[in-house]
Amino acid sequence: MNTTVSAIVIAGALLLMLASLVTAFRGRPMGMVLLIGFAALELAVLVQVGFVIAALSGGAGPREKVTLWGYLIGEVVIPPAGVFLALAERSRWGTAILALAGFAIAVMNARLLQIWQGAA
Description:
Elements: H1 3-25, H2 32-57, H3 65-88, H4 92-117
Helix pairs in contact: 1-2, 1-4, 2-3, 3-4
């Protein structure tokens, strides 16, 4: 697992969480900046999944792979689901959902690093 990509994903997710919180507190729906930000976050998550798959095929990684795959699949699904729900709910609560999605991605990525390093 590439720690540089993980750091980028965590930092991007936290930045998007803060931007979503500010937008929610201002009472505005999701705009193009958040939409593009979450699309870029999804792209970074997919790059990370590619690195993990390459490392796993090379024999690296933890023994417990079911938990690892569960986190990876969850991490891939959360940004599009959050954007879908934010588009369906065009109020401040839609951007609050995006803030929660950004926080979830950051925490899940930190947990993935722990699992990968065997600290879990």
